[in-house]
Write a structure and sequence with these properties.
Radius of gyration: 23 Å
Low-confidence stretches: 281-286
Distance between the termini: 56 Å
Strand order of the largest sheet: 1-2
Largest sheet: 2 strands, antiparallel
Strand content: under 5%
Number of strands: 4
Number of helices: 22
Order of helices and strands: EEHHHHHHHHHHHHHHHHEHHHHHHE
Shape: globular
Structural class: mainly alpha
Length: about 425
């Protein structure tokens, strides 16, 4: 029998009269208020029959101080629209507005969800910020008043957004070309033709520099894995990597960066210039992140453990848009992580959901998953993180692979 806990899941205070969540029996609370406050986090762990409202995904992102990546959430609360019409700065300001709604004005997730469903987000936000409060309205609310169209449900001008995107990308291409020593007078077409004739590792660097001027690479690009973004376990980690790369390319030459990329020595180059890449972090909570980044960059761009292809595939699934074709798993993970064992799309979805739950777990360690893979112990390892019942037998069959083997589980990129 599992012993009764003595620490409240919300306030972390000791109590002799804790009561458990009636749905999952896993979280314990000292008061109803603690249970109410904790629900915004606990909802993702509790056994629920229905889908989770996108306002909860937005709230979770706000409290974690990371942009939402859940595709429907980004649509529902204006992030896709802001990014396409206004660029990264617009998305940042919109995020600041929503942080104010949740963290400072303490608007409940259910209420925000109701705004979205009823098409009253603009009205709800205005009433929230204009009522008497101990908090100032801040800089984001005045900005919102000039950009209410982001949340009023009106269709945005796709042609205008595309024109802006073309201009922004063209500027990024030209800026990178000049930084690499090219002429600022060259046309975008000339630049692209010249870059396409360069060695692949230099092309990678051109693409990374461009991505960093716009934000950072998305999961569906190979740069996501090549430059270690895939090692991040949350968006905060991704943004941290981007910041460090921006600091590095602001100090080193383009030629130095390309040479370091080819030699798998970007971390060493960063250290030379006083930039602390994730592999130099020492805090215990960042061990997995730092170890993963170090593992990737030690052999990138030539060789990667297949677990990083799996992690990238899961990241792609989490960011995928239902209106677009679904991503496909890399061949490297078909045999290693059980996808070749799937008999139908239902089993493939079952396996995808299993890996989503694993990587979302706070104790997930990709390199430990890799070791379990090459030891032929995926079923046992994943079962310690995610409940496999009532499909235990199916999971056991799906998670079989050709291992144990100490040398496999890595693959070589074509050069």
């Amino acid at each position: 029998m599992v012993p009764r806990p003595s620490i409240c899941s919300a306030c972390c205070e000791e109590s002799a009269s804790l009561k458990c969540c009636s749905a999952c029996k896993k979280a314990w609370y000292c008061t109803k208020e603690c249970q109410r406050v904790h629900w915004r986090r606990h909802i993702f762990e509790c056994k629920l029959k229905g889908p989770i409202g996108t306002a909860y995904y937005l709230s979770r992102a706000c409290y974690a101080d990371t942009f939402p990546i859940h595709a429907q959430t980004r649509k529902d609360f204006g992030f896709d629209k802001a990014e396409r019409l206004l660029g990264p700065d617009g998305q940042t300001k919109l995020f600041g507005l929503w942080i104010g709604v949740f963290k400072f004005h303490q608007v409940a997730e259910r209420k925000v969800q109701k705004w979205q469903e009823e098409g009253t987000m603009v009205q709800g936000i205005r009433e929230t910020f204009e009522r008497p409060s101990q908090f100032t309205r801040g800089a984001y609310y005045p900005w919102f008043l000039d950009h209410q169209y982001l949340l009023d449900g009106s269709p945005f001008d796709g042609e205008q957004a595309n024109e802006r995107l073309v201009r922004t990308v063209a500027d990024a291409i030209r800026q990178t070309w000049v930084k690499a020593g090219g002429s600022p007078d060259d046309s975008v077409e000339t630049i692209q033709a010249n870059v396409a004739a360069l060695p692949l590792h230099i092309q990678d660097c051109h693409r990374l520099y461009r991505s960093l001027s716009l934000g950072y690479p998305p999961p569906h690009e190979d740069l996501w894995r090549t430059f270690g973004f895939v090692a991040a376990m949350d968006q905060g980690g991704e943004m941290s990597i981007a910041r460090q790369y921006k600091a590095l390319i602001g100090r080193c030459t383009f030629a130095e960066f390309c040479a370091a990329h080819e030699a798998s020595s970007i971390v060493r180059l960063a250290s030379t210039y006083g930039v602390n890449m994730p592999s130099n972090y020492t805090l215990p909570l960042e061990d997995s992140f730092a170890a993963g980044f170090q593992d990737i960059m030690a052999k990138s761009p030539n060789q990667f453990k297949s677990v990083w292809s799996l992690k990238q595939y899961v990241d792609m699934l989490l960011c995928s848009d239902a209106s677009q074709p679904p991503p496909f798993p890399h061949p490297a993970i078909d045999a290693d992580y059980g996808f070749m064992n799937c008999r139908n799309t239902s089993e493939k979805s079952l396996l995808e959901d299993l890996y989503k739950k694993y990587f979302a777990h706070r104790d997930a360690r990709p390199l430990e998953l890799h070791r379990a893979c090459i030891a032929g112990e995926l079923f046992q390892y994943l079962g310690s993180f995610v409940g496999l019942r009532p499909k235990t037998a199916t999971y056991k069959r799906l998670l079989e692979n050709v291992y144990p083997s100490p040398m496999l589980g890595e693959w070589q990129d074509d050069e």
